[in-house]
Amino acid sequence: MNAGPESKAAVTDRSAHLEGAEDAVLRCDELIAGYLPGVNILNGSDLYVKDGELIGIIGPNGAGKSTLLKAMFGLVNIRSGTVLLKGENITNMKAHTLVSRGVGYVPQTNNVFPSLTIEENLEMGAFQTPGKFKERFAFVSELFPALRERRKQRAGSLSGGERQMVAMARALMTEPSVLLLDEPSAGLSPKLQDLVFIQAQQINKAGVTVIMVEQNARRCLQICHRGYVLDQGRNAYTGTGRQLANDPKVIELYLGTLAKA
Ligand SMILES: Nc1ncnc2c1ncn2[C@@H]1O[C@H](COP(=O)(O)OP(=O)(O)O)[C@@H](O)[C@H]1O
Ligand SMILES: [Mg+2]
C-alpha cells in the first residue's frame, strides 16, 4: 500500500500524513476549526483517502474525531485549511451541496427517522435524485438483503445494529464518492458491533470509499487499509491498520487496557 511496507513503523511527522495523497478522492490540509469563537478543536489536521480505500480515524474521547467529519461535511466552520474532493475545493460548502457532489455522511446518533419505514428512510436518502431510487435501492438491498425483506418495517422498531444498517444504506442512496461514518459501532453490544464492522467492510468491497471514525480502535485497525490517530485535534500517528495496531507507542497510548474496554 501507499504507506509503505508492513515493517515500517507508524509515522508522526506531518509530511508523511499526506504522502501518497496526489490522486486522493478526498483530502484535508491543515484544518483548523471549532465551534466557539477563539477555541479551536481541530489544530491542523491532515488526511486523505484514495479511491476504493477504507480509512479509519481513531483517538481518545474528545480528540475531535466527530468534529473532523463534521468539518468535512460543512457542519462546523473551517477557519483555515482546505478540503478537496477530487481536486476541487469544497471547503465550507453546505451539507446539501456536498451530498450532490458525492459526499455521504452518517452521524453517530439520530441517523434514521424512527417513525418512517425502512423504505421511506431510503427515499429520504434519495430525495435529491428520486429518479435513481430503484437502481440505488437494488444496490443497497444487494448489500443488505434485510432492507428489501423488511422494507415496510418502521425504523424505530429495529435493533441498534439494524438501524445503523439503514443509516448507512440511506447515505448510500446518493451514490457517494466517499462515505463518512461517525462511530457506527457506538452503543452496540459486542456482537452487533462486529456486524457493523463487517457491514462497513462490505460497503467498501462494493466499491465505496469510506472514512470511518471509531471508538473501537482495535477492531477499526483490523479492517482499515490505513488509519490516523487523532489527538487534541492533530494527527498523532498514521500508517496502515497493521502498522498502527503493532506500534508500541500507539498501543501504549491508544490501545491499552482502557482503550480495549
Ligand atoms: N457543538 C459543540 N459546541 C462546542 N463544543 C463542542 C461541540 N461539539 C463538540 N465540542 C467539543 O469539541 C471537542 C471535540 O469533540 P468531538 O469532535 O465530539 O470529539 P470525539 O468525536 O473525538 O470524541 C470536545 O472538547 C467537545 O466538548
Ligand atoms: Mg465523536
Give a written overview of the molecule.
- The protein is built from 12 helices and 10 strands.
- The longest helix has 16 residues, at 190-205.
- The chain has a domain at 16-109 and 179-260: P-loop containing nucleotide triphosphate hydrolases (Rossmann fold).
- Mean pLDDT is 91; it is low at 1-7.
- It is globular and about 50 Å long.
- A 6-stranded mixed sheet has the order 6-7-8-3-9-10, sandwiched between helices.
- It is 36% helix and 22% strand.
- Helix 4 (118-125) packs parallel to helix 7 (160-172) and helix 7 runs parallel beside helix 8 (190-205).
- It is α/β, with parallel strands linked by helices.
- The structure holds adenosine-5'-diphosphate and magnesium ion (MG).
What's this, in brief?
The protein has 261 residues and is an alpha/beta fold.
Secondary-structure map with pairings?
Blueprint: H1 14-17, E1 26-33, E2 42-49, E3 54-58, H2 65-72, E4 78-85, E5 88-89, H3 95-101, E6 103-106, H4 118-125, H5 133-143, H6 146-149, H7 160-172, E7 178-182, H8 190-205, E8 209-213, H9 217-223, E9 226-231, E10 234-240, H10 241-246, H11 248-254, H12 257-260
Parallel strand pairs: 3-8, 3-9, 6-7, 7-8
Antiparallel strand pairs: 1-2, 1-4, 4-5, 9-10
Helix pairs in contact: 4-7, 7-8
The structure holds adenosine-5'-diphosphate (ADP) and magnesium ion.
Adenosine-5'-diphosphate binds next to helix 2.
